[in-house]
Design goal:
Elements (H helix, E strand, L loop, with lengths): L16 E5 L6 E3 L3 E3 L1 H21 L3 E7 L2 H14 L6 E7 L8 E7 L13 H12 E9 L1 H6 L3 H11 L3 E3 L4 H14 L20 E4 H8 L4 H15 L11 H4 L7 E6 L2 E11 L3 E11 L4 H12 L4 H8 L2 E3 L5 E3 L2 E2 L43 E3 L2 H10 L13 H8 L4 E5 L6 H4 L8 H6 L22 H11 L9 H8 L4 H15 L3 H8 L5 H4 L4 H12 L15 H6 L10 H21 L4 H15 L9 E3 L7 H5 L1 H4 L7 E5 L13 H12 L11 E4 L7 H17 L20 E4 L6 H7 L15 E5 L2 H11 L5 E3 H4 L4 E7 L13 H8 L21 H13 L2 E8 L6 H9 L4 E4 L2 H7 L5 H13 L3 H10 L3 H15 L3 H13 L3 H10 L3 H10 L3 H10 L3 H10 L3 H10 L3 H6 L1 H4 L4 H17 L3 H9 L4 H10 L3 H10 L3 H17 L3 H8 L5 H10 L3 H9 L1
Parallel strand pairs: 1-7, 1-8, 4-5, 4-6, 6-7, 9-12, 17-19, 17-20, 18-19, 21-25, 21-26, 22-23, 22-24, 24-25
Antiparallel strand pairs: 2-3, 9-16, 10-11, 11-12, 12-15, 13-14
Helix pairs in contact: 1-6, 3-5, 21-23, 28-33, 36-37, 37-38, 38-39, 39-40, 40-41, 41-42, 42-43, 43-44, 44-47, 47-48, 50-51, 51-52
GO molecular function: ATP binding; helicase activity; hydrolase activity
Keywords: ATP-binding, Helicase, Hydrolase, Nucleotide-binding
Protein name: UvrD-like helicase ATP-binding domain-containing protein
Length: 1188
C-alpha cells in the first residue's frame, strides 16, 4: 500500500489501511436497486461524524469518498448524507460508485463491500490489482468495511484481501470501537436485528464503563416476560447503561423520588416495565461504583421493592451512602455518568457496627433486633445472588432462563474473594456457609443432564494421560480412590476371585468403574452393614457396654485410619500401640476399654475375611503401601480442592499428597467438623492442619503453613435457626472440646421465626395426624411440597414414616439430607430413637454449669463421664446437621420424653416456641409446590443417588418418563436379587434406555441377553465383551470384528478354540497386536498338536515370528519329522542332521526301535549309522542294516 501515513482518528483501526469487520450485518434486497446493508451504512456515518469532529477541532481540510458497487447501498448513503449534514469548505464527503471513481482522489476513502461476495477472485494477482487501484484514490487512509464471515464463505476478491489484512495486523472488528459499537446497537434496535448483539462472538459487553450486576430476583421476573423482543430490549437498555448513558428528563416513580435514598436508586422504563437499579460499591483492586439491577417490575410493584431497599440502606454507614451518591458526569449533547473510584488503602465499611454481632453467643435476630431484614430467606435481598453482565450471561438468561439457576458464576463477597485469591494452601472452615444446594447446585436446571451424567462413556478410570478437557476434574472421593487404584500397580480388587473375570471382560474405563462400584456396593463393610451383619455376631460380653458407632469409629479412624507415627509405623496399630493411646490428649477410653475394642476389632477382621468383604480402610491402606513401594506415575495435579473434608479419615486425606506436589499453594480443604456425621470419622479441623504440616510439608516449606479461614456470615438461613444450631455447638464445645472446632457464632442479617416444638395429645401419632388429618376434615390432604421434608434418624424409622405418608412428603434420613436444604424441616423422633435415651439428662449438668438451671431440676444432674457419654458427640453432630437443613421453618416432634432435657435447655434460652399440634396448625404446615419445583427437587435428589425419593418427585411433577427412570435406578441400586435387577432392566427398556437395561442383565450375569441388546444398539465392542463372558465365542468374534477390536477377536478365538476362524481372518485383521498374536499362534499350534492334527499345527508354527521359536516348539513336543522338514526347507542341512540324531536318541530312550531306525536310516553316512547303533548296543538293528 502506498498510502501516506496520517492519523485523523485515534486508534490502530483508523490507520492508513484497515479492513473493518462489521459482523452479522444482514444484507437486504431492495426491490429496485439490489443489495443494501443498513448496519454498514450506520458504521460509515459514525466514522463520518468522528472525522467531522476532528475537522472542526483541527481546522484542517478533510476530503472523503464513500464508495460501493451496489446502487441500493449508494442511493441509501446519499439520502442519509443529505439528511445528516451539509458539506462545508473544511469537510467534504462524496458518495458514489466504485466504477465511477477511477481517477478520483480523497484524503480518506471508505469502501463498502455489501454484495461483493459475488465477485470471484479468478487470478492470483487480482487482489493486488484491486488494492493498488484503491490505494491510488486515498491520499492518507483507505478503510474497507465488510462482513468477514460472508466473504470467507465464497471466493470473492475480499477473501484474499482479508488474509492480507490479517497478515499485516490491519484487520479489526467494528465493535472494538465504543463509538461504532453504539451505532451498531442503535441501528440493530431500529431494524429488530438484536440477535446478533448477543451472539457468542459479540464484544459489546467487554470494556464497558460501568460494571453491571443483575440479581436472581431480576432473573426470575425476566423469565416471566413472554416477548423475546422485549427481553432483548431489556438487555439492550442494560448495555447502554453500562456505557454510562443515562436518559434525559426521565420520569421517576413517586416512591423513589420521595425516598430519603432517592439518589441511590434509579428507574428505567422498557416497554411498560421498570428496571429498578441502585448504585453500590465493590472492592477489587480499588473501590469502585457499580450498578446493581434488582428487578424489572410493573409500575404498581415498585413501591414494595423500594420499601425493602430502604430498610437495607438504613443499615449502611453514612460514609458508604455518601460515596454511593458521588457522581462523575459528562454534560453536553449526550449526558453520561462515570463510576467513581477510590484507592483501597483504607476500608469503606458498608454496614453499621451493630448490624453484625459476632462477639455474642447468640444473635438477637430471632427476637427481631440486630437483623436487617424480616422476610423469608428465599425472598431476602441481602442474600440475593448477583451475576455480572456479559454475553454469556445474557444468552443464558434470554434463551435458557426458566427461573432456575444459571450455569454462570455469581459474584462473591469480599471475604469469599479473599479466600479465593489467597496464594497459599488453605483451610476453609464454616458452619453453614460452605456447600449446600443453595449455592452449589447451579448445574441442576435441565432434566436432560440426568442422561448426560448417568450415560457418560468417557469416565476416566486412572490418572494417566487425562485429556485437558476433563479439567477441572470434579469427582467423588470413591471415584478418586478407584482412579488411583487403576493408576498404581496391581488393583486392590484383583485379590477377589469373583471380580477378576469381570474386570478382564471389561476393558473400557467406564465399564471397569461400573463393575468395581457395583462390587463395592455389595462387599464393602459400611457402618450399616457393620451393625447388621457383624455386631450381632461379636461376643456379647465385649459389646454389652459399647455402642457400635463408637467401636466402628475407633476401628476406621484410629486403629486402621489414623496417622502413622514413628512409635507405631505400621499401617494398622498393634494392640499395645492402640492401648497406649489412652494417655493421649484426645483419648476417650481407658486402657481396659481399648483392650475390649481391640478384641472386637480382631473378631471383625476374621469374620470379614471369611465373608470375602473389605472396608474402606483396607482399600486406602493398600493404596498407601503401593504408592510407597511403586510411587505415583499418574498425571500430577496443580491444584486439589477437597470439600466436606470432615467426612474423610486422616489416612484418606493423606492420599492427596501423592497426586499434587504443589504443596505450598495447591491445596484447599473445606468443611465443618460439627457436620462430621459420617460413621467411622472423628477429628477436628485443626488436626487436619497439623497433619498437613507433618505429612505434606517438608524442610523450609514448613514455615509457610497457612491460617484457617472461617466463613462466619451465613447466606442460607435466618437467625432463629442459627441460634438453635449454635446452642448445639455450645454443648459440643463444652463436652467434647477436642472433637469440634470452636468458632465464632455464625451471623445472619435476616430475622426469622423461632423453631417450634410440637406437642401432641397422648397416644396421638403426629405423623398420621399431619398427613392423614383428624378424620373429621372432608378436604383432601395437600401434603408437603418440594421444599419441605421429614427428617428421621435412620432407615428403619424412615420405612415406618414412608408407609404412613406415602407420596405426601419427602422423607430422608439425616445422612441423606446432608448437603441439601429445604425451606421447611420436620425433625421427627430424633430423641425417641436415640441410643442415648435417658443419658440426655447430662444436659442439665451443662445448664447448671452455665447457671441456667432452676432449683427443681438440680437433682437431675449427673456427672459427665467421657467413656459413658462418648456417643453424645455423634448425637449432637447429627442434631446439628438436622437443624441446619432448614432455611425457613423448623418443627421438632417427639413421641417420648427423652427430649425433655434439651427442650428445657432451649426453652430457658428462649430459642424455641412450643405449639400444640392442631388441625389448623397441621394445615398451615403444608405448602404445595408446582410441577417445575417438584421436577427441580427430583433432579437434585437424583444427583444425590436418592432414586426412591426422586421417583416420588417426578411422579408429583407428572413426568412419567423420569419417574420410571428413577424407579429403575432405585431397583438397580438395591440390587442383590436377580429378579429385582430384571425388573429394573424391563423398566429401562420401556423408556428406551436399552443400554441401561443391558447393564442390569450384565449385573445378574445374563451376559448373552446383554450382548444382544448391545448388538442392537450397535455397541459392538460391548456386545463382544458380553458374548465373550457368555462363552458365545463365535458371536463375540463377529462383534469384535465390527468394532475393529482385533486383539479381542484373537482372545475370543483363543478362548473358544476357534483357531481356524482366527487364522483364516488374520489377513483381514491386519496388525492386531504383537504379544496377543504370538499367544494366539502358540495356543493354536498347541491345540492342533494335542489333537494330533499336525498339518494344521504346522500352519500355526510356520506363522511364528522367529525360526528359533519354531524349533523350540517342535523340539519340546518331539515333532522331529516336522522340524527336519523345516530345516531342509530352509536348506539348513546340518541342523536337519542334528534333529535326526536327536530324534533317534529320543526313540531309543523310550525303546521305540522302529521309529528310532526311521531316523537312523536318515543319517547322511553309513559310518554314522554304525557308530550310533554300536554305542547303544543295538546289534540286531545294525546286523539288519549290514545285511541290507
Amino acid at each position: 500500500m502506498n498510502v501516506i501515513r496520517k492519523c485523523y482518528i485515534p486508534g490502530a483501526m483508523f490507520g492508513p489501511f484497515s479492513f473493518i469487520n462489521v459482523s452479522s450485518a444482514k444484507e437486504v434486497l431492495d426491490d429496485e436497486d439490489g443489495m443494501k446493508n443498513m448496519v454498514e451504512i450506520a458504521v460509515v456515518f459514525q466514522i463520518i461524524q468522528l472525522l467531522r469532529k476532528e475537522c472542526a477541532r483541527s481546522k484542517h481540510k478533510i476530503s472523503m469518498a464513500v464508495l460501493s458497487q451496489h446502487p441500493a447501498q449508494v442511493k441509501c448513503m446519499q439520502q442519509k448524507l443529505e439528511n445528516y449534514q451539509q458539506n462545508n469548505e473544511f469537510f467534504k464527503v462524496r458518495v458514489g460508485y466504485v466504477d465511477d471513481y477511477q481517477h478520483g482522489e480523497a484524503d480518506v476513502v471508505i469502501i463498502s463491500t455489501v454484495g461483493a461476495d459475488e465477485d470471484e477472485c479468478s487470478e492470483a494477482n487480482t487482489i493486488s490489482n484491486y488494492t493498488n487501484v484503491y490505494s491510488t484514490w486515498a491520499r492518507h487512509c483507505l478503510w474497507i468495511l465488510g462482513d468477514e464471515s460472508m466473504h470467507m464463505k465464497g471466493g470473492s476478491i475480499w477473501k484474499c484481501l482479508i488474509f492480507e489484512a490479517k497478515t499485516k495486523g490491519c484487520f479489526f472488528h467494528a465493535d472494538e470501537s465504543k463509538e461504532l459499537a453504539k451505532a451498531i446497537c442503535e441501528v440493530k434496535k431500529d431494524l429488530h436485528q438484536l440477535d446478533e448483539l448477543f451472539s457468542g462472538e459479540s464484544k459489546l459487553f467487554q470494556n464497558t464503563t460501568w460494571k453491571v450486576l443483575f440479581s436472581s430476583m431480576f432473573r426470575t421476573s425476566f423469565s416471566k416476560i413472554e416477548s423475546l423482543e422485549t427481553k432483548k430490549l431489556v438487555f439492550l437498555m442494560l448495555l447502554k447503561l453500562s456505557s454510562g448513558w443515562r436518559p434525559k428528563g426521565s420520569s421517576t416513580a413517586a416512591s423513589i423520588s420521595k425516598s430519603s435514598y432517592f439518589e441511590l436508586m434509579k428507574e428505567f422504563k422498557v416497554k411498560g416495565l421498570h428496571l429498578i437499579c441502585t448504585i453500590d460499591i465493590m472492592k477489587e483492586t480499588h473501590y469502585t461504583q457499580i450498578l446493581k439491577v434488582w428487578d424489572i417490575l410493573p409500575f404498581h410493584e415498585i413501591a414494595g421493592l423500594v420499601t425493602r431497599l430502604e430498610r437495607i440502606f438504613g443499615m449502611y454507614t453514612r460514609e458508604y451512602i455518601d460515596r454511593c451518591k458521588e457522581r462523575c458526569v459528562q454534560r453536553g449533547q449526550e449526558y453520561k455518568e462515570f463510576p467513581m473510584k477510590w484507592l483501597a488503602t483504607s476500608e469503606i465499611i458498608q454496614y453499621k457496627t451493630n448490624a453484625n454481632r459476632n462477639d455474642e453467643m447468640f444473635m438477637d435476630g430471632a427476637n427481631g433486633t440486630g437483623c436487617i431484614e424480616n422476610v423469608k430467606v428465599r425472598e431476602s435481598l441481602i442474600l440475593m445472588k448477583f451475576y455480572s453482565l456479559s454475553t454469556r450471561a445474557v444468552n443464558a438468561v434470554i434463551y435458557g432462563c426458566d427461573g432456575g439457576d444459571l450455569g454462570i458464576p455469581f459474584e462473591l463477597t469480599e471475604q469469599e474473594k479473599d479466600v479465593v485469591s489467597f496464594n497459599k494452601s488453605s483451610f476453609i472452615l464454616g458452619r453453614l456457609t460452605c456447600g449446600g444446594d443453595s449455592s452449589s447446585q447451579s448445574g441442576l436446571t435441565h432434566i436432560d443432564e440426568i442422561d448426560e451424567m448417568m450415560l457418560s462413556e468417557d469416565i476416566p478410570d486412572q490418572f494417566v494421560n487425562l485429556p485437558q478437557d476433563v479439567y477441572p476434574l470434579i469427582i467423588t472421593f470413591h471415584r478418586f480412590l478407584l482412579m488411583l487404584d487403576g493408576t498404581v500397580g496391581t488393583s486392590y480388587f484383583e485379590r477377589f476371585p469373583s471380580i477378576r473375570r469381570l474386570i478382564y471382560g471389561n476393558k473400557t474405563s467406564t465399564e471397569r468403574l461400573k463393575v468395581l462400584e457395583q462390587f463395592m456396593r455389595a462387599k464393602e463393610v459400611t457402618y450399616e452393614r457393620f451393625c447388621s451383619a457383624y455386631w450381632p455376631h461379636f461376643n456379647n460380653k465385649l459389646t454389652k457396654k459399647l455402642d457400635p458407632s463408637t467401636v466402628y469409629t475407633e476401628i476406621m479412624s484410629v486403629i486402621k485410619g489414623g496417622l502413622v507415627t514413628d512409635k507405631a509405623p505400621d499401617v494398622i496399630l498393634f494392640n499395645d500401640d492402640y492401648v497406649a493411646l489412652c494417655d493421649g490428649r484426645i483419648s476417650i477410653f481407658d486402657d481396659q476399654k481399648r483392650e475390649i475394642i481391640y478384641s472386637i476389632f480382631l473378631q471383625y477382621e476374621i469374620r470379614k475375611v471369611e465373608n470375602g468383604d473389605f472396608d474402606l480402610a483396607d482399600f486406602v491402606n493398600d493404596l498407601h503401601q503401593r504408592l510407597e513401594v511403586e510411587g505415583y506415575k499418574g498425571d500430577i495435579m496443580d491444584y486439589v480442592y477437597v470439600d466436606e473434608v470432615q467426612d474423610l479419615s486422616m489416612r484418606q486425606i493423606m492420599l492427596f499428597k501423592y497426586v499434587c506436589t504443589n504443596v505450598h499453594e495447591g491445596f484447599a480443604f473445606s468443611g465443618d467438623t460439627a457436620q462430621a456425621i459420617a460413621k467411622g470419622i472423628a477429628f477436628r479441623f485443626e488436626d487436619i492442619r497439623c497433619m498437613f504440616f507433618k505429612k505434606f510439608l517438608s524442610g523450609s516449606e514448613k514455615g509457610n503453613i497457612s491460617k484457617i479461614f472461617q466463613l462466619s456470615e451465613n447466606f442460607r438461613t435466618h437467625a432463629g435457626v442459627l441460634n438453635l444450631a449454635q446452642s448445639v455447638i455450645n454443648l459440643l464445645c463444652h463436652f467434647f472440646p477436642l472433637f469440634v472446632d470452636a468458632l465464632r457464632p455464625e451471623t445472619s442479617q435476616i430475622n426469622g421465626d423461632l423453631p417450634i416444638l410440637l406437642e401432641t395429645d397422648e397416644n396421638n401419632n403426629a405423623i398420621k395426624f399431619i398427613f392423614e388429618g383428624d378424620g373429621f376434615c372432608s378436604q383432601p390432604i395437600t401434603g408437603f411440597g418440594a421444599e419441605q421434608v421429614v427428617l428421621v434418624r435412620d432407615e428403619s424409622l424412615k420405612e415406618k414414616v414412608v408407609n404412613i405418608v406415602g407420596k405426601n412428603a419427602l422423607v430422608l434420613t439425616i445422612m441423606e439430607s446432608k448437603g441439601l436444604e429445604f425451606q421447611d424441616v420436620l425433625l421427627y423422633d430424633f430423641f425417641t430413637t436415640s441410643s442415648f435415651s435417658n443419658e440426655w439428662r447430662i444436659i442439665y449438668k451443662y445448664m447448671k454449669d452455665m447457671d441456667l438451671l432452676d432449683s427443681p431440676f438440680a437433682t437431675l444432674c449427673s456427672s459427665f463421664d467421657m467413656q459413658k457419654h462418648a456417643v453424645l458427640c455423634t448425637e449432637l453432630k447429627q442434631l446439628y446437621v438436622a437443624i441446619t437443613r432448614a432455611r425457613q421453618r423448623l418443627w421438632i416432634c417427639e413421641s417420648t420424653g427423652f427430649s425433655e432435657p434439651i427442650y428445657d435447655y432451649w426453652k430457658k434460652l428462649s430459642l424455641v416456641e412450643v405449639k400444640h399440634l392442631s388441625g389448623s396448625f397441621a394445615d398451615n404446615m403444608h405448602i404445595p409446590s408446582s410441577k417445575p419445583e417438584w421436577r427441580s427437587r427430583g433432579i437434585k435428589l437424583f444427583h444425590e443417588n436418592n432414586f426412591r425419593m426422586a421417583q416420588m418427585c417426578f411422579s408429583k411433577a407428572g413426568d412419567k418418563h423420569y419417574e420410571k427412570l428413577a424407579e429403575a435406578y432405585h431397583l438397580r441400586a438395591i440390587g442383590g436379587d436377580a429378579r429385582v435387577l430384571k425388573d429394573a432392566a424391563e423398566l429401562f427398556s420401556s423408556i428406551g434406555k436399552k443400554v441401561l437395561a443391558a447393564e442390569c442383565f450384565y449385573d445378574i450375569e445374563d451376559y448373552e441377553t446383554a450382548g444382544y441388546i448391545y448388538k442392537g444398539e450397535s455397541m459392538f465392542e460391548k456386545a463382544g465383551n458380553c458374548f465373550h463372558l457368555a462363552r458365545c465365542y463365535k458371536l463375540a468374534v463377529e462383534e469384535y470384528e465390527k468394532a475393529r477390536a482385533f486383539v479381542k477377536c484373537l482372545s475370543a478365538c483363543t478362548d473358544g478354540q476357534l483357531f481356524d476362524i482366527g487364522f483364516n481372518r488374520l489377513g483381514l485383521w491386519g496388525e492386531c497386536g504383537g504379544d496377543e498374536l504370538k499367544s494366539f499362534l502358540h495356543k493354536g499350534a498347541r491345540y492342533y498338536f494335542l489333537k494330533k492334527d499336525f498339518t494344521n499345527m504346522m500352519k500355526f508354527v510356520r506363522s511364528f515370528s522367529e525360526k528359533d521359536k519354531m524349533r523350540s516348539f517342535l523340539t519340546k513336543r518331539r515333532c522331529f519329522d516336522e522340524l527336519i522338514f523345516l530345516e531342509e526347507e530352509w536348506e539348513n542341512f546340518k541342523e536337519a542332521a542334528k534333529v535326526m540324531h536327536k530324534g533317534a536318541c529320543y526313540y531309543y530312550s523310550i525303546k521305540d526301535f522302529e521309529n528310532m531306525m526311521k531316523f537312523v536310516r536318515s543319517f547322511s553316512e553309513k559310518d554314522k549309522m554304525r557308530s550310533f547303533l554300536t554305542k547303544r548296543r543295538c546289534f540286531d538293528e545294525l546286523i539288519f542294516l549290514e545285511e541290507e
